[in-house]
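Thread: "does anyone have the structure for this chain?"

Original post by V.I.:
We have the sequence but no experimental structure in hand. Need at least a predicted one for the grant figures.
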Amino acid sequence: MENPPGTESVILRAEEIKQEIRTHEKQIQALKEERRKLKLPKITREEANHLYWEGNLPLALIMEAAGLKNSSKAQKAMIQPKEIAVVCGKCGERAHTIAASRARARELLVESKKKRHRCPECLKEQTEAQMNVFNAIREIRSAQFDRISELKAMPYPEYLKSPHWQTTRKQKLAHAHYSCELCSATNTRLNVHHKHYRTRGHENNRDLIALCEPCHAKFHDKLPGGDA
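Reply from O.Q.:
Generated one for you, tokens below.
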């Protein structure tokens, strides 16, 4: 029985890869042994901070050189926060703020460059302004909710006489171009009909339909009788 074409070359390549892996494993082992024999210089806390803030060495390597475990607790104890010069993007005041890490220092410098940084006073004013807007919106929504609840609780005939419904009715008729939305009749009395009553008190045009009196009667299967 003959082997499929190329079988021998595949087997040979697999063996070559196996040999390459063994070679690399030996090289890696030799490098590990060389690193183990190297004695990293013992550095002080001051030197560790200088290497961290002024260089690009990984923090884990700095902690190893300091003879410390690379834990969050040990890092906080070793690395001192640094003052970063920034400019407020609103008032232009120059100040210093504290960064606990290189990543935070970079963020602060980017914020300052793009004029997104805020000094404490401007940040306080900005927060107060945002809260004022939030409270104003909340009060408006609360008043709207109370008004909607009041409109929903009204007897329906009284609701149809309310200023809210009169305004809503006019808006719907204008939206329908003062024509019946079933038969397209114009120059006739039109009623505005509720498709449903779930949004009573805060209807939009999709909740309503403009109908001439004959179509309105068909819609209700009753005699014409005004809006409903």
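V.I.: this helps a lot. Residues 45-120 form one domain.
O.Q.: and The longest helix spans residues 120-153.
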